[in-house]
Amino acid sequence: MIQRITEQRPKYSPLFILATSLLLVACGGGGGGSDTPVDDAPVAMALSLSAGKTELKMGDTSQLVLNVAYDDGSSQPVSASDLQWQCVSSAVEIDQNNLLTAKQSGTTDCTANWQQLSLLVSFSVAESSVVVDLIRTSPLGPLTLTVGAQQTVGVFAHYSDDSNTQISSGLVWQCDSDAVSMSGERTGQVGHVLTAVAPGQVTCSVQWQGLSTELQITVQQVSEVSAELSLSFLDHLKDSDQDLSRFTAWVERAVAGNPGYGFSPVDAVYLYYLTADERYIQHAITLVEQQVLDAETKIAEGQRPKVSSDSYLHVGRFISELAYTYAYGGELLSDGQKLRWRQYAEQAVWNVWHHKEAEWGGQPFPWSGWAVTQPGNNYHFSFLKATMTWGLADKNEHWLTLLKEQKLPTLVAYFADFEGGGSREGTGYGVAQGNLFDLYRIWKDATGMDLAGRSPHARQTIDYWIHATTPTLDQFSPIGDQSRVSFPRLFDYHENLIHRAASLNIGSPEAKRGKWWLDNNSVTEIVYGFNLHTTLLAQESEPVAPTDLVYHSKGAGHLFVRSSWQPDATWLSVVAGIYDESHASRDQGAFSLFKDEWLAVTQNIWSHSGIHQATEVHNTLRFVENGETVRQNLDAESSMDYQVVGDTTTIQMELSPVYGKNNSITSWQRDITFTADEVMVFDQCVISSDVEAIWQINLPVQPEILADGSIQSGQLLITPMVPAAPDISVINWVDVNASEYKNGHYKLELSGGDCRYQVRLNVL
């Protein structure tokens, strides 16, 4: 609890007091030790706690951050070294860096002193009954490494409340062979680095506080690793009674001359591998030969072939079709065909990584180089797939070395630092991570190197999508561009994504929850034949229902919370994190609310194109300067944290960085409290006098202003609390853009809040 300034201000609920940073009594005058400002310098008026928890359990830590507010409306953080803390008991301890540690159960008042100002904060510490059940390594193993390869291994403690934390110290490692060596924590990364030294079988054990676990490791010579484009992932089907009739019929239809939409020669190669029926590989050869002939015709005409369209977005599909057919049908190709196919594939892959010097048939065709250095982007997955499949099929040491030494280490490092799974491209383009997981499978089958096991991202992406799915299990959170279809309904692509992620992690808790999701969502079976190939992957067989009600992906900057796992639960999604992808929206601070149907959601899902990124279409605070909406800054990093107390989840967002390049917007914090029947949204910001802050919410149903000042939209009741009587505007999106918005959907705007809003949303 924090003592407030004693001045006239609107009355807030206790939740608001706990969830927001409130100004406190200033003991004395202004800052700088003087009662009189000099040269119109701003006067320090009050301290506030801008970050840190006041309710903790024994052993918890919390980083405290204090701000000082000045009489000109500005504020800035106070250096920890300038603060002095005094606490009346030893329940908590605050060090010189403002790091608070909960030491004993109970409550205590602590006073922070800075110059002539002081701040009183009450902390409560509860006893913790949570104990460590076991420890485990990440990756879980068994691992297969080649001599000279390195693998970072983390150790996690699993607690009785099903939470997990990474252990950073006190670990004791012991391996029963010198085939591997284990170093200490890598600089800047928690975890031990395991280096494969010599061939052999190794068991490494790790102990921590009386608990232990083991990691099995196989070290192979490089020469023992099959660097081939392998289809061994299909071997489990050869002695299986799995029904392949739909996939077989899909391929047979194509061989008969009537291919379905999206048919790929790779499907025919798969069935050839399983049956040895030469009809299938011959059909694949025919299709790829046509691809090469079409490309040669374009090149002869002085044009670029189709493989280079849309900044080489589809190069992975085109070249992997050629690569698989080349690898498994090479004996049926003439020497002339092999040479032509190889020249075409080589040029395509070379052009990807040399965009400024790209050429076709000796003519220069430079292109933008879009996403060649962006490992989290869906284009990049396509570039890697072309390089990987062709490099393996051709046993091309140049491309394999490029992958091993540059591209794959960069990819692994990016996702190793991506906590929580998912994608910063959002949920529309983020589904393309199925292609990323396909890369992991291809590389592991070919080399034995488990790229997926080097970070938790693939496993965590399973949980990400489970929680991003609405309680009705038929829709998902519409974050970012939704270009395939605007409305966020689950489809084959989402099934494929989880098929691939779960197949890489069979036996893990995440894969078991993924199996539950696959069994229970609205996609009862894959609809389109071109998506059937992922049903051939080995899958987890044991479904386990999820239990966690909150999921936060810090890497993606997305949080999902629901009241239960029943279909009629209330569900909320929130966005606050790193904004650095072109398919992401300017929606930092935005939320969507669902119960049985969408109650409040981005207007993008009702649009024709599904690619509206502007702040206007999202449920967030919008800033207007000189009549124009101020754009959120790309490459900015907001932050978000949450606490759960009983049935209430409180989400705190620091959104100031997204406007950091605009001197007219100094700060913006948004807090949201969530329960099954009520959501409270709190906003406070500091802006210049020529900027207006507008609170906005997009609604599927036309809002009606009631006699008491509240607004009803379908099953959602919206009650402005601060200000109690704001200016209200209702916008019909058809009036804004009739070609994009065919049906009436609406936006409610509240203004006049003087950069402070409190709005209650009741689910009726």
Automatic annotation (TrEMBL):
InterPro entries with a match to the protein in the record: Chondroitin_lyas (IPR008929)
Q: Which Gene3D superfamilies match?
A: 2.60.40.1080, 2.70.98.70, Chondroitin AC/alginate lyase
Specify the protein name.
BIG2 domain-containing protein
